[in-house]
What we know:
Blueprint: H1 3-23, H2 26-33, H3 37-51, E1 56-59, E2 62-65, H4 67-93, E3 99-105, H5 107-124, E4 128-134, E5 148-152, E6 161-176, H6 177-183, E7 196-200, E8 221-226, H7 229-238, E9 242-246, H8 247-250, E10 256-259, E11 265-274, H9 281-296, H10 298-303
Parallel strand pairs: 3-4, 3-5, 7-8, 7-9
Antiparallel strand pairs: 1-2, 5-11, 6-9, 6-10, 6-11
Amino acid sequence: MSYIQICMDDWSDYNVCLAVAETGSLTAAAQELGVSQPTVTRRLQALEQRLGEPIFDRENGQSRLTVLGKKIVDHAGRMREEASAIQRAAVAQDQSLSGLVVVSASEGLGADWLPRALISFQTANPGICINIMIKNHSANLADREADIALRWNGPGTQQSLVGRRGATVGAGLYASKDYLDQNGRPNSVDDLSDHACVAWSMGDFFGWPSTDEGSAVLPRHVAFKANSPASHIKGIDSGYGIGVTSHRLARRHQNLERLLPEFNTSLDLWVVAHETVRKSARIRAAYDHIIQQMKIDQKYFSEGAASHL
């Protein structure tokens, strides 16, 4: 085995070490890397055997770094940053309209609007392959997890990212007609305290209304939670209670009724890329195309009007 091959094998194991350190467990690291948990365990054990010391202390399913482990993760993190910089520089030099473009988005956009928005782009550029990556957390663009990301309320805090606001997504209060027939219809924000709530398990994404004086209005109880837009709106449609969801998703469910239309909330949707990677012709073209399609569908996002795509 050559020296280069040994280094590459070692780096692969260090990357596993980084994933375990960042996710906190072998199971989560395996999911992040797209491999099995036994594979992660085996490669960690091989690395620890070569180094002669443990990298992690394992207790109750959690993995905590040892003193040696902290040093390794620090060095390996810088190695990953440099490797990513090399990859970004190589991609930036490519001015052809062919190859792969990876776009990261949440489930609600990535499984619905984004494939329709990009079909005309791929048709015009048949040499480009579109890869849509559904992620519930922000993709690391510096580490090339994706080339372009759709994000809420800004590009984030990561350095060297460029972003443009593409659309404003409007939302309001909705409930199923069946639920409202059984439980009554609220006439004011204060009346919401008499109703059940369909909430997000990761916090209120769009936010629950407050009174004009700014006082919080708490629902009678939370009857249903979800971390998926499809599951969340299905909970509203099934009659669990009242929820805040986007107008664009609500318009597809004929059994839903909008409540208190004076209440309207929104989130800004941004298109983000790493400043170096966006110099690539295919990535820049895809980036600009997504922005253009969002502008075309402005009322679809803000009001739930029919999509033009």
